[in-house]
Predict the 3D structure of the following.
Amino acid sequence: MQTLGRSNLIDFKGISMINIYCDNWENYKNFQARPDDVLIVSYPKAGSTWMSNILDLLYFGNTAPERQTSVEIFLRVPFLEAAFAGVPTGVEMAEKLSTRPRIMKTHYPVQLLPKSFWEQNCKIVYVARNPKDNAVSFYHFDRANMTAPHPGEWKDYLENFIDGRSEFGPWYDHVRGYWEKKQTYSNIHYMFYEDMVGDTVREFEGLCSFLGLSPSVEDRERVIQGVHFEQMKQNKMTNYTTVPGFDTKETTFMRKGKVGDWKNHFTVAQNEKLEERYKQKMKNTTLQFRTEI
Ligand code: A3P
C-alpha cells in the first residue's frame, strides 16, 4: 500500500492508474455487493462527493443528523478502491458499514466494476460532467492531492487528458461505458453535473423517484440546504480539510462548483483540439454534454 507521496501513472488493465487505487484490486474485484447497496460511480472530479452527501442526507439525515457534523464523508460513503497506508481500505470500510443501505463510491470504468453489483442488480447512480470542466477540476485537484502524479503545467496536463492518459482511463470511454450499459441494465440513473447545478431540486426529485423514495417536505429541505456548495465548503466533514494528503495551500477541494470555469483555462487552440477529439471519440452516441448553462 502506498504511503503519502507523489506517484507515477501505471498501466493497469488497459487504463492509466496509480497504485493506491489498484493495490487492493483482488479484494475490490471480489467485493460482495448486497441487493440494497447504492453505488455512486463517476469519473474523478465529476461531483461524486456532492452525490455522496446528497444520498447520505437523504437516507440518514433524519434518523442520524449528527453524521453531518461528526463523520467525514469518505467514511460515510467509502471509496471502494482506495488503499491508503495506515487506514482501512475502501473495501474494509464498506464491509464494516452498519447502515442500510450501504452507500459507496467508485471511479472505475464499467468494464472493471466488481461483478457482484451487476449480479445483485444494485442501484447505481452515475454522475457525468462535461470534459472541459472535468479536466480543469482534475488538474487543480492533482495540484493538491499529494498521492497523485504531479500535474505539471496545465497545457501538458490537458494534452494528457485529451489523449486519455489520466487516472481511471480516458474520460470518453468512462462516460460512454456507463451510458451504453444503461441500455441493458436499467438500474443505472445517469445524472449530469450541469443539470445538478442548473436545477438541484428537479434533479433531486428525479433521483428520489429512481430510488423509490418519497421524502417529506422537511426531509427534502434538509437535503437541499445541506448539500449547497457553500454549506459543504464550510463543513469540515465534507470539505476534505481534515485529509493529510490534500494540500489546501494549493487549492481547496470545494473549489468553485461551477459550470464553465473551463473558459478561464482553455486557449482557443486547446478548445479546438478537445472538441476535435471529442467528435471522434463520441460519435455514434446519443450522449450529450453542456459546457455552459
Ligand atoms: P470544482 O473543482 O470545479 O470546483 P468529486 O467530488 O467527484 O471529486 O468532484 C469535485 C467537484 O465537484 C469540484 O469541482 C467540487 O467543487 C464540486 N462540488 C462538490 N460539491 C459540490 C456542490 N455541493 N455543488 C457544486 N459543486 C460541488
Observations:
- The domain at 14-131+171-245 is CATH 3.40.50.300 (Rossmann fold).
- The chain has a mean pLDDT of 96.
- Residues 42, 44-50, 133, 137, 140, 197, 227, 229, 232, 254-257, 261 surround adenosine-3'-5'-diphosphate (CB under 6 Å).
